[in-house]
Amino acid sequence: MNVISLESVAKTFRDFWLRPTVEAVRDLDLKVEKGEVFGLLGPNGSGKSTTIKMILGLLKPTSGKIALFGLDPRSREARRRLGYLPELSYLHPFLTPRETLEYYAGLCGLGRAEARSRSAQLLKMVKLEEVAARPLGGFSKGMARRVALAAALVGKPELLVLDEPTSGLDPISTKEVKLLVKALAAGGMTILMTSHLLADAQDVCDRVMILNRGSSVAEGRVSELRGSLEDYFLAKVGDADGFVLADFLA
């Protein structure tokens, strides 16, 4: 059974009078197997965020079928088995990393002792043990990102959805996150990620799909690429024409 399954999925946004305004996703088919690291790539406005929200059950597709573990993505059982790292992480600035993780562990139904143990393990994993008692309000973006990643893992999800996981991280932290993603996948976790950093996707993804204007324009295994993922991406999506400055500079 596929962990993620999309069949002929489409999403059209409508205005107040129910007139179609944006066809964000068009006739999309997607299969992700257990233990895979799958990259969902595309330029801004290509439909990546809409697709992720439908997979998470936050948006209902206009047509088509979506299943997580063979279940409705809005079901409690499906949501219990997934973790999510959004592109923008909103953490309470007055809580410490330890308090934040223990709070999320409680939401996952863990007892107090297990929540403490799990939080300590995750703080060690993301290398924040020394600042575990400091309020998050004083953290850099990269440090806060590590806390958010740990929070996404606190329930030991079977499916981890990462939206721009290396955003705001320095090169060393970026490498550590990529190693972590590989280790989680090797342990049997399924990972779906989006990234604008194509080199990162090439380093960690088993397969990728490239979206453009709501449709899939390419899908395949990274290991079968001849050359860089960036070159392949540009060939499928098209090079940017750049800004038109002639009138402004005249």
Question: What does this molecule look like?
Answer:
- The chain has nine helices and nine strands.
- The longest helix has 16 residues.
- It folds into two domains: 164 residues, Rossmann fold (3-Layer(aba) Sandwich), CATH 3.40.50.300; 67 residues.
- The termini are far apart.
- The protein is of the alpha/beta class and 250 residues long.
- It is globular.
- The model has no long low-confidence stretch (mean pLDDT 91).
- α3 crosses α4 and α4 crosses α5.
- β6, α6 and β7 form a beta-alpha-beta unit.
- The strands form two sheets. It has a six-stranded mixed sheet with strand order 5-6-7-3-8-9, sandwiched between helices. A three-stranded antiparallel sheet has the order 2-1-4, covered by helices on one side.
Question: Notable features of this structure?
Answer:
single chain, 250 residues, alpha/beta, Rossmann fold, 9 helices, 35% helix, globular
The top level CATH class name of the largest domain: Alpha Beta
**Can you count the beta strands?**
9
Question: Main beta sheet: strand number and arrangement?
Answer: 6 strands, mixed
Instruction: Estimate the helix proportion, in percent.
Output: 25-40%
Distance between the termini: 61 Å
Instruction: List SSEs in N-to-C order.
Output: EEEHEHEHHHEHEHEEHH
CATH structural fold name of the largest domain: Rossmann fold
Number of domains: 2
Total count of helical runs of at least 4 residues:
9
What's the gyration radius in Å? 19 Å
CATH superfamily of the largest domain: P-loop containing nucleotide triphosphate hydrolases
Report the sheet-strand fraction. 15-25%
